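User: Run a structure prediction on this.
Assistant: Running it now.
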Amino acid sequence: MGRMEEVWGKDWMEFKPERWISKKKCTIHVPSYKFAAFMAGPRSCPGRKIAFMQLKNIASCVLRRYKIVVVDDHPVVPLPSIMMFMRYGLKVRVSSRTPGDK
């Protein structure tokens, strides 16, 4: 069993955004040790909490203002790595949200 499979499960190569959302439609807590860039324990990054807070703020602002959809027929293939890279990039279509958009 490889490291990626050990951490993320047998389907680690599959694009499954639902793995981060619970049945109650809220995000699932993932332990910090799964994010190797920040590690965990006594040597964890002191700026980790600030970095995650900034990431959440920026993501919420972008997602509130724009509709982001993966381009049809674009292969979504992650590269096995400590950092999450996409083998072919992630082509998306971005458009402004209008009132009533979901």
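The beta strands are 66-70, 78-79, 85-86, 92-96.
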